[in-house]
Specification:
384 residues; alpha+beta; 2 domains; 4-stranded antiparallel beta sheet; 3-stranded antiparallel beta sheet; 13 helices; globular; disordered N terminus
Length: 384
């Protein structure tokens, strides 16, 4: 019995040692069926505040949102090489597939989208490698922007890439399709603008530092800050509003109409507005308020980058943009620091109460459910 017990104890020790070795950085030994990545739910045990913000972000839904799945299906169906199309879409929306090979989105960990453990195990980005720009090293070392951070459940390493390099974002927010058309050009727009010289990066706007104590609660209160992992962009009207200006330049009222000049400017957005896919547009609408709850006598200017297929037809559905875009039709977006004065002649009904100028953000990424949100509004009341 003693020999049997010793044998069992030796096997148990060996099994435990194998698991420990598998967890060590750089180890080639892995436990059976072990995933290379940790679930965001596990990260939340120590990083609850950050996880809460991330769970509210588009990154958390990047692999499961109905609009993405619909676009993925359309893109794959239209592509001559369906496997390549599937992989090209999935590795950005579910980048852990680069390591796990789960391009069919079968595993729960893959469906977490752009998740904690993927981003914090990226070691480099090479945009010349179109189909695999990320250099990743899943394991016990987590990389981030804080030089003083110390992990309790894992090792930590300071990463300049996470601190201030737009390349971390560019790997997914810059994409040229097989026809040579830049479907996503956010990074190159930023790079060509005035902000790199001033050291202003993607992280500064989209992941600003906010008060928050995480696992570092023992730090001096002045150092209790975390990056906002909600990663807000064009989908949040208040975020767009911060970088734009809207004002009346002049309003000349006659008996039956008004001559209206409106200034709209991109004062603080680090790329052209709107950014991202060309299914998004910024609309300047000018009209009158008659008290009926809608903008009467509406006149518009639309700021948008238009992509066209090989036949010259404009494209709007996200799946079509990636596969079918063959040329850029026009680009009327507001570039960085650009200001425009737009002029309108607006008919005035007898019951008009105010002349209204409004900026609207329109997203048609999902043709089944287009979204429009009011970004800013200015009013000139009757009699002023």
């Amino acid at each position: 019995m003693r020999l049997i017990f010793r044998a069992h104890r030796s096997l148990a020790v060996l099994a435990l040692a194998t698991l420990v070795i598998a967890a060590l950085p750089g180890s080639d030994v892995q436990a059976a069926d072990a995933e290379p990545y940790t679930s965001a739910q596990d990260c939340a045990r120590c990083h609850q505040t950050i996880h809460t913000y991330w769970a509210e972000s588009e990154h958390a839904r990047s692999a499961t949102s109905p609009s993405y799945l619909a676009a993925l299906g359309a893109a794959v169906a239209a592509a001559p090489d369906k496997d390549t199309a599937q992989r090209s879409c999935v590795w950005c929306h579910a980048p852990m597939a680069l390591t796990t090979g789960d391009y069919s989105l079968q595993k729960a960990i893959t469906k977490e989208g752009v998740s904690c453990d993927f981003c914090h195990t990226v070691t480099g980005v090479d945009l010349d490698r179109r189909d695999r720009p990320f250099e990743v090293r899943p394991g016990a070392v987590k990389r981030g922007p804080l030089g003083y951070a110390k992990g309790l459940a894992h090792d930590t390493a300071y990463s300049a890439l996470h601190k201030s390099s737009p390349l971390l974002c560019a790997a997914c927010h810059e994409y040229t399709n097989a026809r040579g058309v830049a479907v996503l050009s956010t990074y190159s727009e930023w790079k060509a603008g005035p902000y790199p010289a001033g050291g202003q990066t993607c992280q500064e706007c989209h992941m600003p530092m906010v008060p928050g104590a995480d696992v570092s609660a023992s730090l001096d209160p002045s150092r209790r800050q975390i990056n906002l992992h909600r990663l807000v962009g064009g989908s949040v009207a208040s975020r767009v509003r911060e970088g734009l200006e809207l004002r009346f330049d002049s309003v000349s009222v006659a008996a039956a109409s008004a001559d209206v000049q409106v200034v709209v400017a991109n004062t603080g957005v680090g790329h052209s507005v709107p950014g991202g896919l060309s299914s998004k547009s910024l609309v300047l609408a000018v009209g009158v308020d008659t008290g009926a709850g809608e903008l009467a006598q509406r006149r518009e200017r639309v700021y948008r980058r238009e992509l066209r297929d090989a036949g010259g037809r404009p494209l709007s559905a996200a799946g079509d943009l990636f596969v079918q875009a063959a040329s850029v039709g026009s680009d009327t977006r507001l570039k960085q620091k650009e200001s425009r004065t737009e002029r309108f002649t607006v008919p005035l009904p007898e019951n008009w109460k105010a002349i209204v100028a409004r900026l609207e953000y329109r997203d048609e990424s999902d043709p089944r459910a287009p979204k429009t949100s009011v970004v800013a509004e200015q009013r000139r009341e009757r009699g002023r």
